[in-house]
């Protein structure tokens, strides 16, 4: 596995974007967007698990925007 915060599996058209450090302890499911948002113990978003990513470019763009924001805060 690479150190990239973005993982895409073309065989399932699924994408995972890591947005924060630490373990996910709960999830929020948004069925209409084929999205599972991983949350840490404080309720902060730590990852986006996007199913059928090529059909949900709005969700992909949202995840990438959040990734850029978290990278800017860490810099």
Describe the protein's architecture and organization.
By secondary structure, the protein is α+β, with helices and mostly antiparallel strands. It has one domain. 24% of the residues lie in helices and 33% in strands. The protein has 1 helix and 5 strands; from the N terminus they run βββββα. The protein has one helix at residues 57-74, and strands at residues 6-9, 14-18, 26-30, 35-39, 45-50. Strands 1-2-5-4-3 form a 5-stranded antiparallel beta sheet, covered by helices on one side. The longest helix has 18 residues, at 57-74. The protein is globular. It starts with 5 loop residues before the first strand and ends with a helix. The relative contact order is 0.23. The mean pLDDT is 93.
List the helices and strands and how they pair.
Elements: E1 6-9, E2 14-18, E3 26-30, E4 35-39, E5 45-50, H1 57-74
Antiparallel strand pairs: 1-2, 2-5, 3-4, 4-5
């Amino acid at each position: 596995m690479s150190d990239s915060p973005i993982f895409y599996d073309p065989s399932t058209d699924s994408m995972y974007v890591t947005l924060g450090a630490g373990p996910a302890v709960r999830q929020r499911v948004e069925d209409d967007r084929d999205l599972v948002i991983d949350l840490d113990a404080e309720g902060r978003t730590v990852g986006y698990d996007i199913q059928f990513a090529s059909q949900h470019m709005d969700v992909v763009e949202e995840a990438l925007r959040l990734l850029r924001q978290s990278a800017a805060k860490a810099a």
